[in-house]
Design goal:
Helix 1 links the parallel strand 2 and strand 3. 43% of the residues lie in helices and 17% in strands. The chain has a six-stranded mixed β-sheet with strand order 1-2-3-5-7-9, sandwiched between helices. It has a three-stranded parallel β-sheet with strand order 4-6-8, with helices on one face. It is globular. The chain has ten helices and nine strands. By secondary structure, the chain is an alpha/beta fold.
Length: 235
């Protein structure tokens, strides 16, 4: 166990579990280095093809960043922003299983993953505008890249609570299932991702993430294309 995050590896799949139900699975900034260490361990394992994030409990995936720590952190070099940037930079495919509501900083935490599966009845809510807190830069970028600027304005400027069907329409969710079907749906996503050709999958993930931030390295992408075409996967 590393703080309230733990890592399990089974075959080609790694699973990180957030287990802090007494605090509604809030994310403490002091625990983020431990999370990043787990992400480093996952990336260093060449056998792994997919990472799944899950949380304990049955109503709230995460209440977000610990509010008692908000005034004490560096808001220019934000520790949660760094952690989510690290998640997004992982070369292997990632899936987030949302067993309940997603609030505050947990919204961006989940946006760092490639795919999100949610449960019926879940809500998404960011109260930053009500509390006088300005969300950090890459969290805003990821929201616009994922859902578009108008949905992002509803989340951050209006402080709207988005329903499960809102989240599906906005593109935040890739699938919406009954709570009892979350494990099976996550398994299906993970198994499909783990069975695809890794070089092409990883190269296209990297390029698409760069496109979404308008930072595409065309030369590196073209090199990745040639690498794939010369690989055993393509042959």
């Amino acid at each position: 166990m590393a703080a309230h995050f733990s890592l399990a590896i089974e075959g080609r799949r790694a699973t990180i579990t957030l287990d802090n139900p007494a605090q509604r699975n809030s994310i403490d900034p002091a625990e983020l280095p431990a999370l990043i260490a787990l992400l480093d361990e996952v990336e260093a394992n060449p056998a792994l093809r997919v990472l799944v994030l899950r949380a304990t409990g049955d109503k709230v995936f995460s209440s977000g960043f610990s509010m008692g720590k908000v005034l004490d952190i560096d808001h220019v070099d934000h520790p949660l922003e760094q952690a989510v940037d690290r998640i997004q930079a992982l070369p292997l495919a990632t899936v987030c299983a949302l067993n309940g509501g997603v609030y505050g900083g947990a919204v961006d935490f989940t946006q760092g993953f490639d795919f999100r599966i949610g449960v019926e009845g879940m809500l998404l809510y960011v109260p930053a505008g009500m509390l006088g807190v300005h969300y950090y830069v890459n969290g805003l970028r990821r929201s616009v890249a994922l859902m578009g600027v108008q949905w992002a304005k509803r989340i951050f400027v209006m402080c709207d609570k988005l329903s499960d069907t809102d989240l599906l329409r906005a593109g935040y969710l890739d699938a919406l299932v009954a709570p009892g079907d979350l494990t099976a749906a996550t398994d299906a996503f993970a198994d499909k991702l783990a069975g695809l050709a890794p070089l092409a999958q990883r190269g296209m993930k990297r390029a698409l993430n760069q496109v979404s931030f308008r930072t595409l390295d065309v030369a590196a992408t073209q090199a990745a294309i040639l690498e794939c075409m010369a690989s055993e996967d393509a042959k």
